[in-house]
Amino acid sequence: MQSSFNFGAKSYNYTESYIVSGSNSAAYKAVLSDNWHNNMLCIVGDAFSGKTHLTQMWAEYTAARHFGASFIDSNIIIDDIAKFSDESQLFHLINNIMASDYKLLVTSSKPLNKISFKLPDLASRISLITQVNIEHPDEDLFISLLTKQMLEQGITLKPNIASYLAKRNNRSYSDIKNLSAQLALLNNTNKGLNLDVVKTLS
User: Fold this and answer.
1) How far is CA 182 from the centre of its chain?
2) Which of residues 101, 133, 165 is at a domain's end?
3) Range of the domain at 184
4) pTM
5) How many whole angstroms separate alpha carbon 88 and alpha carbon 143?
6) Number of structural domains, the chain?
7) Does the residue 144 lie in any domain?
């Protein structure tokens, strides 16, 4: 039997604040789906790509919790599965999830088949987890995330500045985080941001 998630019943902060674009829509839709093969899903993405945000969103809807007990009585989240140290425990967790009505959501910074597990049986179980990728941010997502991060620091980023930066950066999630810190410093030093000031970052 599959558990179902009532995603339409109520609005939640994590859902409302998650910015969806072509880069992350597949992961977003997968998390919101209740049709997970073998009751398991892995979100693969770079640092700062929003993996944890998606797990928090899922936890709000499903009352999931981070794994910390030998028994299963709820949906489970594991952040960065490569750092899960007890392989035997993870093996038994996956077996229990597959035999239950609960679900397991994990995150990883690299594809699961690129993680070295010492326990052969665990590697076999890991291969049963469906993976969905968060891709590098496209221009729209880059602009939206940078603008959002600046607003969180009390700074309104003009659209022409955001567009200029999106066209001249590598568009990684780490770049967005670093750039927002640099812009905040520039803003404080220059008492505001304009295109000429921003161009000094190039």
Assistant:
1) 23
2) 133
3) 139-201
4) 0.86
5) 43
6) 2
7) yes
